[in-house]
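In keeping with the milestone schedule agreed at the kick-off meeting, the structural modelling team has produced records for the first pair of proteins. Each record is given below as a sequence line and a structure-token line. The laboratory manager (R.T.) confirmed that both were archived under the project's standard naming scheme.
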Amino acid sequence: MESPRFLSRSDLIGLAALALLLVVILPLSLDVFRLNLVAKYLTYAFVALGLVLCWGFGGILSLGQGVFFGLGGYGMAMYLKLEASSVANTKIQSTPGIPDFMDWNQITQLPLFWQPFHSLTLTILAILIVPTLFAYLIGAAMFKRRVGGVYFAIITQAIAAILTILIIGQQGYTGGINGITDLRTLKGWDIRPDHAKVVLYFVEVAFLFGCILLALFVRHSKLGRILVAMREKEDRVRFSGYSVANFKIFAFCLAAMFAAIGGAMFTLNVGFMSPSFVGIVPSIEMVIYTAVGGRLSIFGAIYGTLLVNFAKTSLSESFPQLWLFGLGALFIAVVLIFPNGLAGIWRDHVQPLIDKVLNRRKSGSDHTSGKTLGPVAGGAPAE
């Protein structure tokens, strides 16, 4: 059967290898606790995937992807919190039927912007639309005025800082520094037991593969080629008649939507959401995940996310004071020694060796079957 146009042979191999790792090897080799940690790591892979499109292909470095991750996470947390705040569950409060942190802050009525989160359908729509719309407003304000490069990176970083301060300051509406905690059920289904964690892991993997396929489609489409051309020669693309600003806005919005999906899955897997996942530090860490894996590689970014988070967990358990130094050294090493990340190492050093071995085997097979490698009929060299 002929492969779809947006899936090359290497893409199919990459998908198969990743599926083997995430669907078979890790679930069979890890206990539920470690598997839930992997699920947490994979929520960041959604962000890294978006950064590959936005930064790797489009040349737009955003240091504020934590904003969209947080918006998605808070959207899901608001729905789960309302479900956990039924009148029966909160009858000891002075105002039953509202989240506990609102009651502690003397709020007696559910705010208007919380009302849509009684519905799971509206919550899902909000998770997908609100961060994307916010990204559109930022992108339109910046790219239409040809603000880019380091200035755009600094502005996104400032937005992440502002949103963090806003969330912490509005404790009565957001839970403040503690965030939204004590999340229990999704449509009556308890998300806390081990078997629920396993189910959520596979659901998350399914969503991740859906996003990967969408990213591969964009990369192999005309849109993807224009993004790469825009990254290399922005003025030439503009003079060719394309609207550079609109293409940048699209890439930024798509990356924001991916990040929001990751944030929503984070809330479901971890069971809370707080401003510590929204600000500058987590946003920069998400860029590091992408850089380590390779900002030009869709699969590389996912492996980079898994590797850095695994190292973070392992090192922080043994050397909690040294982890941040290690993370900084890792980022410096990526910039100075292997700028294309793990994917670049694979492409430049490992893949040529594999191709060489395969070519030798193929040559041996041709000799065995009586074929010659010399010039073929008509004088054309054999490949």
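The second protein of the pair:
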Amino acid sequence: MNLHNLNSEGTEGNQQQTRMVHVVNAGGNRQSVNAVSGDMFKRILVDHLIPLLAEAGQPLSPAAQQHSPDRIVAGYEPLQKLAADKKNNPDSAVMAMMVRDCAATDIAGALLTDNRAVGRKSVVEFGWVVGLPEFTRTEQYLHVKYAPEGRGSSTGRDDATQEAITSVAGRQALFHRPASSGIYALVCNLDLYRIGLNDITREYAVGAEARQARARALLQALAATLVKPAGAQRNTQNPHIVGCEGIVAVSRSSLPAPMLSPLDDAYQAEVEGCARALNKIQADGIWTQRFASTSEALDLLASLSAELDLPAAAR
């Protein structure tokens, strides 16, 4: 991914700062490198997810339809009334409504804090999307903003007359903006079996058909995130996405699918090795598939979406 500024940390004066994190390489050495937070990538995924859920006919709270990060807990009156009656409605009933009435809350989670605290944990988990230190660089570039009206007085006054500068030069605001290019490591976990699951009663609050529809929408949203990471500064620094490689691990047992970071060069072989080891515990429980390009990744996610078969009961 080249020449992007998907996740700025802030601005000092006229200089915008990008996100930088420290990672430790295989040799134990600490290195500083550009990264995009998992919060940013989850927001990107949810922005793709909401219209897909609507197209699939799944219910969305009014706030979720407006892409509010608070989703169902933002002014959904039936939930507020239910949560206010603590005597007759246990937390499990509140959780069931959060899962049943808003598919976006079911998948992306939300925390109710009015009258009581009930949290729906997200089905989707992203780590930091972090650059490989050897192949990632960030540089600052000078830009000029030209404002034909209103900018002149804010950029200085004439020394002799003390009047606001109104020349073309006086209306130009200089600023520095970062751009990062490199190879980035992404890890993502989807607990598809938890879609529709009431985390308190461990029973499904929605039917099998709705769970399948929501899970398909989630896989499709992940595919959309890979080809359109709609983060910050895309109006002038739309990322150049060159390619994508990796591995998908799927668990059909109670053992977790292995998820190792691409920060390690041997991550694909290690994931396959972990799968073989876990399959000795539960035969054929883990399945893995490598992909070497963006199109292969999308084709793989599309096949998983089409062939999806969720468990009938919670584990």
